[in-house]
Design brief:
Layout: E1 11-12, E2 24-31, E3 42-59, E4 65-69, H1 77-96, E5 103-111, H2 121-136, H3 145-156, H4 166-173, E6 176-180, E7 187-190, E8 197-203, H5 210-223, H6 225-248, H7 251-267, H8 273-284, E9 289-293, E10 300-304, H9 308-319, E11 324-330
Parallel strand pairs: 1-11, 4-5
Antiparallel strand pairs: 2-3, 3-5, 3-6, 6-7, 8-10, 8-11, 9-10
Helix pairs in contact: 1-2, 1-3, 2-3, 2-4, 3-4, 5-6, 6-7, 8-9
This protein binds (R)-mevalonate.
């Protein structure tokens, strides 16, 4: 079931045309994991790799939904996430009120996104499912992109109780987004980049639980609000500067801010030794900024690598110490 045969070499993601078929993208958070839950802005980039889904429906009275999961994954990911994944799929099916008694459905998930903690694989799965519902079932043929995203958000609740919605929004719309959760609908906008941003990302090989880590951050916030508010304030300053330097295409400044964001995530206690080791190695190999990305306490880190040469050097350095390494770019 697991794709343990993956060669330990950085994979270059192949791009695909946007919104094709049932594609839903993975994501990397440039600024704002955890803080985004508390309704401040974040910047997120979709990666080119995607999950897709096909649905086969048979008329019979079993009402059984069979899930075939052909997605590539880091070892243990699918085992650890099996329960949550099943709950997420059910939430999307319930949202659309489909496949009750009288129909048998087979859902097949695939694509080239390697599932790893931090890459938004869960969001990509549920958004791909929503796209497949639109593609396969005539009564849903007119679903809008916002409705696909809303269905993905429902599914995300299977993975964590209070998702900010950042992952499903990146999975649905792709590109580089500024995203903010609000009391109502989230606000998000696509950022135009002067040029693609080259990134290397690497997995610690540790699958963490988003629900557990988000809950623990909430408990720490409630225990010491002043401590959390001070970190939140520092973060808000970084993300507003980050947006500006991104618009200006100032990669060196962007790198410094990414480093600063990592420091805040360490203070928030969501980084860990394994992530810090990869971050330091990436910087030593020439990355102009590096940070953990996503839930943390395992999962992924990313490195900003402005040229192909630096991207290759950083990937080569990380390949020696990380179980999985990928090269991508934000467009
Ligand atoms: C997970 O990719 C990002 C978190 O901020 C959770 C969320 O935004 O829902 C940790």
């Amino acid at each position: 079931e697991e794709d343990a045969s993956e060669p330990k070499k950085a994979k270059v993601e192949e791009s695909c045309s946007t919104l094709e078929k049932t594609h839903a993208y993975g994501k990397l958070i440039l600024f704002g994991e955890h803080f985004v839950v508390y309704k401040v802005p974040a910047l997120v980039g979709a990666v080119a790799a995607y999950t897709d889904c096909s649905i086969e429906v048979e008329d019979n009275d079993t009402g059984i939904v069979e899930i075939v999961d052909n997605r590539p994954a880091v070892p243990n990911y699918k085992i650890k996430k099996a329960e949550e994944g099943k709950a997420a799929v059910d939430l999307v099916l319930n949202h659309f009120k489909i496949f009750g008694r009288g129909k048998k459905a087979k859902l097949t998930f695939g694509g080239n996104l390697c599932c790893a903690s931090g890459i938004g694989a869960s969001a990509a799965q549920v958004v791909a499912l929503a796209r497949a519902v639109k593609q396969t079932l005539p009564q849903f043929a007119t679903l809008t992109e916002d409705e696909i995203n809303a269905a993905g958000y429902e599914g995300e609740k299977g993975y964590h109780g209070t998702p900010s919605g950042i992952d499903n929004t990146a999975a649905t719309f792709g590109g580089l987004l500024k995203f903010q959760r609000t009391d109502g609908e989230p606000i998000f906008e696509k950022k135009q980049l002067k040029e693609p941003i080259r990134i290397v990302y690497a997995s610690t090989g540790i699958t963490s639980s988003t629900i557990e880590v988000v809950d623990d951050v909430r408990a720490k916030k409630e225990a010491d609000p002043a401590w959390f508010d001070a970190l939140l304030k520092q973060y808000c300053d970084i993300v507003s500067k980050g947006e500006k330097v991104l618009e200006d295409g100032n990669m060196n400044e962007l790198g410094k801010l990414i480093d600063e964001n990592h420091k805040i995530l360490q203070d928030l206690t969501v980084s860990c030794d394994e992530l810090d080791t990869l971050v330091i190695a990436a910087r030593e190999a020439g990355a102009i900024g590096a940070k953990m990305s996503g839930t943390g306490r395992g999962g992924l880190m990313l490195a900003l690598t402005p040229t192909e040469e630096i991207q290759n050097a950083v990937a080569a350095a990380l390949e020696k110490i990380a179980p999985q390494v990928w090269k991508t770019s934000f467009q």
